[in-house]
Structure formats: structure tokens, C-alpha cells
Amino acid sequence: MKDTLVIVHELYPELLDKLKQTFDVVHFVRLGSDEDRAAFKEAMTRAVAFIGSNVAFDKALLEQSPNLKVIASVSVGVDNYDVAAIHDRGIVLTNTPDVLTEATADTGFLLLMMTARRASEMNRMVLDGRWNVSPGRDQFGVDLKGKTLGIVGMGRIGQAVASRGHFGFGMKVIYQNRSAKPEADKTLGARQVDLETLFTEADFICVTVPLSPETEGLIGRDLLSLTKPKAIFVNIARGKVVREQELIECLRDGTLYYAGLDVFEKEPLPKDSPLMTMDNVVCLPHIGSATHETRGAMCDLAAENTLNVLDGKAPVTPV
Ligand SMILES: NC(=O)C1=CN([C@@H]2O[C@H](COP(=O)(O)OP(=O)(O)OC[C@H]3O[C@@H](n4cnc5c(N)ncnc54)[C@H](O)[C@@H]3O)[C@@H](O)[C@H]2O)C=CC1
Ligand SMILES: O=C(O)C(=O)CO
Q: What's the whole-model pTM score?
């Protein structure tokens, strides 16, 4: 009898077929209905392995999964896993770092450029048939060239965003991180500063710090009120790093000029969120790593981690 593998993710067909040769695969693209969630819980009572994302692995779910040996997250962020409880149970947890760094940094830069040039507003104006005359000063954007880019969380993705800013746009880079990054200081001429200095000096701020008990609610009105008159704030990390209600209020009352957001406190963004109707916000639906190539590489890595663990070998990217 084959072991049960539960997948909650969209996998490309070749990989799914390959896994079906070895496992009894129970596959959900997402847990969208009560029926899916009930079937998922039932399958987890048999599962030896889980591949997926956007499933909160808490103590209750672990208790309902007595045979589980490996959880292979198709993400680098592991904020929705109770890592201590997983490790206490002797379950191996893996993630997908590195393979998504460039695509996610591209999304960060996409938001930096869209906000700088007010691309959503301009697009809406054209599509609504309101492009009657050449845009004037009240619709102009701002340059990136020569400006200061502040990175909150100078890890893999933060450095990849900084590298695009420095080499592509001649931006000065400052960053806040819990440890110094001498390599980035050397290659990017970057400078480590505290959060207050970063929010005061940066023209563009990009958040790439993981969500953890220390970073939850890290950014709110106190920091946002330090920003320059035309400062732009981009979050591609996790929504909960920012106090979203305070961000909304700062955007409304002019404390903060503009924001670009790929992540939100609650996802999908609730239909009554004020962010939906604000001109000075660009919203994306958490597509940081969502390219064919990158999602394919993430799924391949998650599958390799799973097979390694079940074969008694070391996973490639353990958490
Ligand atoms: N929007 C999206 O689709 C995606 C979002 N992400 C998010 O980006 C995050 C970062 O990913 P990577 O760069 O690969 O991680 P990483 O581990 O390479 O970088 C994180 C950096 O933050 C620093 N850090 C952690 N806690 C800190 C704290 N309390 N104060 C100051 N610095 C702190 C670390 O020292 C490290 O340098 C992920 O955890 C995930 O939440 C990642 C991929 C896609
Ligand atoms: O990898 C992550 O952490 C994501 O947010 C999705 O790619």
C-alpha cells in the first residue's frame, strides 16, 4: 500500500504525475470550501507527508496528523507554522528559500516603479476614458534615480531589491537588519541604520523582514509619520508586519504619500477594505513569487525535500 501525501497547492501536471507513482496523493489546489477542509482533515489522519502553503499548521492540526513525518512548505516564509510544536513532534519542516528571491525582488521593484509613476491611477484614467489632455503637474510621478532606498530586513530578498536599486537606478541604499551585512555594505555601498533613521532618510522604503513575534505590528504611525513629503512605502513581506489601520489613516491624512502593497493583514483583501478605493495605493494579490519558472522551482524543491526526508536523507532546505 502506498503512503499518503497530502498536497494543498497548484502543482504542474508532470510533477503531480511523478508523485502519484510513489504516493497515494490527496490533492487540493486550495482549501476553498467546508467540504475541502473536512476532506483535508480526514486525509491528514493518514498522511506521512504534506506539500503546500497557506495552511496554518497549529497544535490542533498536528494532533490530527499522527503519521506525519515531513511538512514541505511551498514558501520561504514559515510564519503560519508552529515551528516549535512541529520540531517537538519530530516532524521535519522544510521551505523554499533562494529559488524565489529574484521573482519576489522583481515584484518589490514593480511596486516601487508603479507607485513612483502612479501607474495604477494613470491606467485607470486611460481605461475610464478620462485621458482628455496631456497629464499635468498634479499627475506627475517622482524619479528613482539618485534617491535613497531603505530596506527593512536586509536578507536574500532585501539585498536583491537593494541590488536592483543600486545598480539599475543609482540609488543609495540604507537598511535596518538585526545583524550587519558587511558584504552588502561593500558591494552596494549600503549603510546600516536604525528604523527611525531609515524612515526619516529614505525616499523609498521596502519591507522584506519575515513575520515573527518581534516583527508583528513593527510599523505604524510612529514610524510612518517620520517619512519625507513624497516618500513611498512598499510591503512585500507580510501584511501583519504593518499596523494596517494606521497605514490606511496615514495614507488618508497625507502623513504618508503613497504605498505599494503585495501583502495584507487579511488575505484575500476584504472587499470593504478602504485600501480598495484609495488613489495613493497600488495593491497586488500576493504575487511576489508567482511566475511560472519560480513557482515550478519552488514545487520541485518542496518535492525533493519530501522525498529526501522519507528516504532517510537530509532535506535540501530544512527550517
Ligand atoms: N510577497 C511574497 O510573495 C513573498 C514574501 N516573502 C516574505 O519575505 C520574507 C523574507 O524572505 P528572505 O529574504 O528569503 O528571508 P531572509 O531570512 O533571507 O531575510 C530576512 C532578513 O530579516 C532579518 N530579520 C529577521 N528578523 C528581524 C528583526 N526582528 N529585526 C530586524 N531584522 C530581522 C534577518 O536577519 C534577515 O537578514 C519571507 O519571510 C516572507 O515573509 C517571501 C517570498 C515571497
Ligand atoms: O514564499 C513566501 O513566503 C510567499 O509569500 C509566497 O511565495
A: 0.98
